[in-house]
């Protein structure tokens, strides 16, 4: 298990620098069971003041269970959950100083937006004047002042999301938890709302933990990402570290598109780079840590780092290490880029070309030459 307080431990990325202050949230070897099923095992990470952390993983990875354990809705069967240094295992949810935004927003349908925002503070026995002030301030922060007397069904999806966030903000929590907050929005609105949400949280200096399975969302919004799979934390770090220095093949394939190539270490090139060979003997050079390369069994090449040009492989003077002849298998126009797949030696390679590239006009069946730099290959540890 990799401790989420640091970046990848593959030797290719430096540790994340963290504050010496007491974290707002800290999980220490937390395990969660549903009956006899272990759904989270040994989860450890912390969240500093003002950070936006995303728990990223596929369905069933344990990320929502972990979020609910922080909120107090699910008990941890082992380990410790600490809020500002204090263990909260016996503290009920309404006393944890945590705000929760649920996936379906969970707004009370029979209450106006103002009443929805007032409900939590009223349960906290806050004075009526203070409740009105909090509700007014929270609605202003999400720009919903004009909708104070409307009911949830009278709002759009984006407005309901902002109302759910405002309701959590009215509680003035030390920590905001967001469970798939944008999964019910269409693609365009989701892109707009993630920008608005990050700007709002930074403006309020709010500390937040979000759950999502959307890699693009996690990369765009997070200060750090905790990648989970099958109840375990696979890697944690900044978006750049997670994308450029994945700890293993799962992280490489789950966070962004990736070409993961099975290959074994076979010495070094004359330039001093590590030399790998695929099962059929195709050579690939890697400019990476020799110690990591000796143990690696797979290589990663991101599709946007690959150059593809037309031309018969036999006529290409460039063919050699990290330069391969092949044929184009498919081409799909995606708007901002064209997605190409080509067969080169014993590898099927995914390539992403900018929409402005002339090479995107290659036709299926055309001979092509594929190449990438040694610095663009990452050795993946088992």
Mean model confidence by pLDDT: 87
The profile of the biggest β sheet is: 6 strands, mixed
Order of helices and strands: EEEHEEEHHHEHEHEEHHEEEEHEEEEEEE
Task: Please tally the helical runs, counting DSSP H or I stretches of 4 or more residues.
Answer: 9
Number of β-strand runs = 21
Principal-axis shape equals elongated
Cα distance spanning the termini: 13 Å
Strands of the widest sheet, in order across it, are: 6-7-8-3-9-10
What structural class do you assign from the helix and strand content? alpha+beta
Fraction of residues in β-strands = 25-35%
Radius of gyration: 25 Å
Which stretches are low in confidence, meaning pLDDT under 50 for 5 or more residues running?
1-19, 315-319
Helix proportion range: 10-25%
Produce the secondary structure layout.
Blueprint: E1 25-34, E2 37-47, E3 52-56, H1 63-71, E4 78-83, E5 86-87, E6 98-101, H2 113-123, H3 128-141, H4 157-169, E7 175-179, H5 187-204, E8 208-212, H6 215-221, E9 224-229, E10 232-237, H7 239-244, H8 249-254, E11 259-262, E12 264-268, E13 274-277, E14 283-286, H9 290-295, E15 298-301, E16 307-310, E17 323-333, E18 337-344, E19 347-354, E20 367-371, E21 377-380
Parallel strand pairs: 3-8, 3-9, 6-7, 7-8
Antiparallel strand pairs: 1-2, 1-4, 4-5, 9-10, 11-15, 12-13, 13-14, 15-21, 16-20, 17-18, 17-20, 18-19
Helix pairs in contact: 2-3, 2-4, 3-4
